[in-house]
Design a protein that fits this description.
The protein has about 220 residues and is mainly α. Helix content is about 85%, strand content about 0%. It contains 6 helices and no strands. Helix 2 (about 35-50) packs antiparallel against helix 3 and helix 3 (about 55-80) runs antiparallel to helix 4. It is elongated, with a radius of gyration of 49 Å.
Length: about 220
């Protein structure tokens, strides 16, 4: 009997440990999902797509606000990576992002609002605030784009000038090489015609003295 009791107690402990482990794992996964902006944005879009009525409008404003802040963050990251002058843009975007976070909290509060009269008043105000944040981020992105375009134009102009100089130097080198080749052809001596071979003195036929003496006899 005692053995069965201890086995039952061990089984309960095992079940409790398993449930605690599962709960802790789910909490850790939930925290990671919340920290992941891509997953959070996807979940928010899904909720906005399946919602109806004023709740859908609130979630649509949250989606717009999140997309706007993400685009601003991307612009600031590019400005910092380019190494160009970006002035006070990062500091200004930090303030915009802080205001956007506060506005998102207000929108999350409106999600749980059930009074139509309150929603009728607060929704237009919230939409106007989201539009203001969107306009600020657009101005910020335009400033970043202008800075990047300015540095790109300067770089392209410098590259164009260097390319023109290189092409001119290459053309001058080719012309000089052709001129040297023509001069070498003029200066090079022409080959003299081969001299005719002469017969050596030993090859000259000498008169036969015996024959000559016979001819001179009376």
């Amino acid at each position: 009997m005692e053995v069965l009791l201890w086995m039952f107690i061990a089984f309960l402990i095992l079940v409790a440990v398993s449930i605690t482990t599962v709960v802790l794992a789910l909490r850790a996964i939930s925290r990671r999902i919340r920290r992941n902006r891509a997953v959070a944005a996807t979940a928010l879009r899904t909720r906005a797509g399946f919602s109806r009525g004023p709740r859908r409008k609130v979630l649509a404003l949250r989606v717009q606000l999140a997309d706007t802040l993400d685009s601003g963050r991307a612009a600031i990251d590019l400005a910092e990576q380019s190494g160009g002058a970006h002035g006070e843009l990062p500091r200004l975007f930090a303030r915009i992002r802080a205001e956007g976070g506060a506005l998102d909290l207000q929108l999350r509060l409106l999600e749980s609002e059930s009074a139509p009269s309150v929603l009728a008043v607060e929704l237009p105000l919230a939409a106007d605030r989201v539009e203001q944040v969107t306009a600020l981020v657009r101005r910020l992105r335009a400033a970043v784009a202008s800075g990047l375009a300015g540095s790109t134009d300067d770089t392209l102009g410098t590259l164009h000038s260097e390319m023109e100089r290189e092409v001119a130097a290459l053309a001058a080198g080719v012309q000089e090489l052709q001129r040297l080749n023509r001069r070498d052809e003029v200066v090079a001596p022409t080959r003299l015609p081969a001299r005719p071979q002469t017969r050596s003195a030993s090859a000259v036929r000498r008169p036969n003295p015996t024959f000559d003496l016979k001819e001179n006899r009376p």
